[in-house]
Design brief:
348 residues, 24 nucleotide stem-loop, u2 snrnp hairpin iv. U2 a', Chain A, five-stranded parallel beta sheet, nine-stranded parallel beta sheet, alpha/beta
Length: 348
Amino acid sequence: MVFTLFLLLFLLLKTNCSTFQDCESECIFEPVKLISTNIGSFPKCAKVCSFLKIDHSSNLTHEQLTEAFKNLETLVGGLEIVNATFTDVKFLNSLTRIEANTSPVRISNNEKMIELGMVNLTTVITYNFAVSGNKEMTVLNLPKLQIVDCQLSPCKPVISMWNNNQNFCMTTEEMKVFLLNNRIEQFYVNSKVCEPAGDNMKTCKMPEVGCEELVGNLEIGPNFDTKTVNSLKIIYGSLLVRNSTLDDLSCLGNLTHIAQFGGNGTKANSPLLDYKLLVPVVKIQKDMKSIKMANLKRIVTSVWNAVNIRDENDWELENGNETCAANQYALFQKTPQNAPRSFDGLSC
């Protein structure tokens, strides 16, 4: 906690000294809150420096904001849209890049907002990207988003996608922006995975030959056709191996990520905020000779990388064919060393 406060103070001081040097003087917007009396002075530049906040008291229409931001491509400083009544933020459609190293990018508690709809946004540089508390929001609609990160060391971005509509979902492309960035270690995400597009042959809801991303849980049991998972790289759900005749998990040699952020991976009638259900459980049968998955890089859950690995028949891994430490290495040899993990409910 103390370290975090010192980090934020350091970043704030660094930004205050340098941020607005990135803009021409006529492209700097000093007021923190955008309101009806100052919107006329918002710069017409493609790159604007401003700690920009819009809320219920801004007294601005969607049309006014669309006109004010029509030339805006890069925002340097920060962005907060909170307690507003807009159904989306498409008035920022021209925006492609947000540079807010020491400020959050926060779109929260907007009671009527159903999506972001920033269809040209590719890059968000911030220590905290939060889209939370928007009770009607069901999708992000950020189709071009590629990077969410922060540039100042030792900053590592925090992702918060929490407490939106119970049907809120992210596409697999949006999820991969966060999942594949190992610098993002803290996830506060409660989201389903949006229904895969029918023409996307690499994404499936049931294992099939050629599928690379499975939306749903994977169960490997008797007479399982291993060819259906040979190409699999990402599981958005849990992994269960029981009653199979496999000696090892070499069929999952291409698997790199297992991710479960609530929604799809929970039981059908379970509350989404039950932390026990949000942890992905990797269950391995006791006669498996090796549980090594050669390319597994990360198991991520909305409970900060928490992983609970148990045997289906209460077999204690440390008394089996491999030691607890060996199993830990087999599963996590490529994952961040600070990722919490346990075996049979115990830490190695």
